[in-house]
Amino acid sequence: MTDLDAGQKGMAQILAARLWNSRWLLAAGVAAVLIAFAFAGVSAYALVPALLLLLAAAMLPAAGLGQSADGAAAIEAIGLQRLSGEYLAAAVADPLIIFDHAATIVHANAAAFAAFGGIAPGISLPLKFRAPEMQTLLDSVLSGTLASDVVDYTEKLPVERAYRVSASSVGHGTDLYVLVFKDQSETRRIDRMRADFIANASHELRTPLASIAGFIETLRGPARNDPAAREQFLQIMQNQTGRMARLIDDLLSLSRLEMKPYLKPGTEVDLRQTVDSVIDSLAPLARENSVAIERDFAKGPLNVPGDRDELFQVFENLLENACKYGQSGGRVLVSIARGDLDSEPGIDVTIRDFGPGIPEEHIPRITERFYRIDVETSRTQKGTGLGLSIVKHILTRHNARLTIKSEVGKGAAFSVHLPTH
Fold first, then answer.
1. Which residue has the higher pLDDT, 136 or 89?
2. Residue 12 is inside which H or E element, if any?
3. Is the domain of 210 the same as that of 310?
């Protein structure tokens, strides 16, 4: 049946429904017209225009409450008849493939072409998807054993993606079936990140706990009556508890940052005053590491919208890292300058050390949680492996960016670009 035939049939159904719903009113009207003309003695031919007008009025849509249920159903039927499977498939955002009883592709939407490529009507699904789980899924649905089924499937090329695939028959007696691929890649990635985070956090806490437990056992045994050993072991235990306390504080900071919504600009932060405060607070650490902190600030007001405490934490973490890991360079340069990054007005704060630098392969991952370039050096410097991750989260809330540049043997520069509006 063509779309035109379907439309004509649907319109006829609507008119018939309207006449049926108005049947009693129409009968009463016809009777009244006949009686009126009979008493007036008018010719029967004069009745025709009146009856036609009455019939036309009966076929008009009912006023007030709108169309009847039958009329609405008829209109819905017309709309569904005009919708083809191709239009319906195109409206689905996930990859969708329609196939027949021979497991041959009948139609695939644009999302399926983009995800899998090389898909066209006439291609055999078992040849396209050779994974055992996909073969089992197709067999179970085509054999009639199950009306619908779901499996997990991983596509390896061009990039690895994980899907939850559902297969089901289309209607009754159509000999058509549909595959829908729900992308689970992001969910799986988040699950892996969560598992890795828990494993790393557990490891970081377990190490000092094991150390403390070992020293307690020693103090209760061989070193019970050894004052020198007792003092040494207690100092180590104090250092380990401090390490755990710092780790817990950083974990809580990350948790709070992730639960907060994005920062709404409003409060102005004076970067000159904030960075000066950070430098003053870390002066003892710089002296301890024999590092001189130099300033190079632009003139005039240096204000940006943001949260002062959070930005203080950003520059504190960056400057602390520069003093610890760039210690061999002997100095750290802190500069503030007005800059235009990609035509976006803002202020750049750069903290540069002149130490050993960071190998290029580590730079893309250095802001990941618990990622360390040198595990032993990091632990010696009392690092938790979370400082730069906290920096990244705070800057994201401020719509700011962190740029890292480094050359082995020449130090590293961490630049923060903060928008001014």
1. 136
2. helix 3-21
3. no
